[in-house]
Amino acid sequence: MPEHLTASLLIALIGGIVDLDSTATWQFMISQPIVAAPLTGLFLGNMFGEAAVGLKLGLMVGTILQLMWIEQLPLGMNVPPDAALASVLSVALGFIAGRGYESYSEREVCYTVALLLAVALGLLGRSLDMFVRRLNTSIDTWVCQKVEDNQLWAIAFGHTMGGVFTFTKAFIFCFLVVWLGVEPLKYFTSTLSFKHASGFIVVQGLLPVVGFSVLASMCVKDRQEMRWLIGGIIIFTLLPAKIWLGIGVALLVLYRSGWRRSVK
Amino acid sequence: MRILPRFMLAKIAFRSFFLQSSWNYRGMMNMGFLYAISPGLDRLHEPGPAREAAYLRHLEYFNTNPYFSSIVMGVTLALEERLSHGEITEDIIHDTKEGLMTACAAIGDGLFWDSWRPFVAAAALTFAFGNYLLTPLIFLVLYNLPHLYFRFFGIYWGYREGTHIIRSLRRFQFPQIRQSLRYGTIVLLAYLIPNHVNVHTPFLLTNLPLEYFYFGEKVVQGIGALLLVALGTMAYRARIDVLLISFLLMVFALVLCHWGILI
To answer: Taken in order A67, A69, A71, A73, is the CA torsion positive or negative?
Structure first.
């Protein structure tokens, strides 16, 4: 079997399993980018005999996507962009297309372009997710009719079909994107001049800002806490970071133990 | 005398992992809920109209936090057992389930989605930025400890305590836990922002003596990161979409790089 076809099938399988975890089953959070991307990198890298490279790429991609979509959650009717599929596809496209380049900078640019492309694919994944939910609604109506006719087996069948739809959707989507997407990505990367290329590396270094902004919006509730955050940033800027991280954690523990005493 | 054995409750807790497989716009998690508790219903109700009525009862709308769903399942089965003994009516099951699923959704979403996940993600990111290869494993283990705790113990509590479960949940003091997690995330964020946003400019190399270069680089990076995060936070609070913010940041970086201000 050709190497590219095998890789596409492997990614499709990983995509299917990881997408099941995002809402349909388990919710162990294997689908979170910080897990899904390194996992994909590890399996793909192992296949090509470059496990460490794949894992490191996965960590880089996972870190950025985790931050970008940290506040996106499947709550109630809300269907967020498919961060799980975006993580898997970003690593897959970046790794397979990036293997064709010799220089570090070209590979890094390829990884960044794959990352940006995967963000758009995550939005497409959301539309597919909504389509599966509409299919499930039809199944639900069918199951209700069957149960009214005292055919209780329909519950297990209808419920299982929901999982099958989710897996199949992710499997086909990942397979097609990897199977067809690597060559266009290679072509696009090779058309970029060096000046553009280094710009993409700068973009990669700045992208965590988005996630940090979202996280700050979620956690900081008033002006007092904002001052604490800015003070913390100044301290961590001026002094060796790890020492202050230790002190921060120690203060948190002290605060928690103080709170326990006040409860008692 | 309780009818459902521990093994069956464990089986139902295991089935609750598949709660959202058939998530749909009409009943949301209804099929998943019924699929999970169906072994219990089969044990409690004889085949025939009673069992059929129980199945239809639980095909109605259901939506809660998936990690707290096993608590609702336990309480529902305790009430179904009382119904099978003729102690209560169907309406009590309906009302209790509806009230409990709303309460569990509020507690579970606030705890897991709003506090625990961002905290664990921020903790994992501190390892990930250091290229620590076991980061995914740390994230998974840390995140799933409370998840599995509530999944498996929740069903026993719910079944044992019935409607008194809300009183038992209160002893966890979830608001305080959430606040501590939020403070923890702020500490981690204060560490991550100045250390892991890459703002490098060529001017320092040409204008600063070499002995001050490292310090100057750190200060520029810290101030740059702080300003960018402040702008990003304002944009996010002004309800600008995350993807649009990312796109604007990308354009900003490419332009500054083109002018030679950033490298």
So the answer is: negative
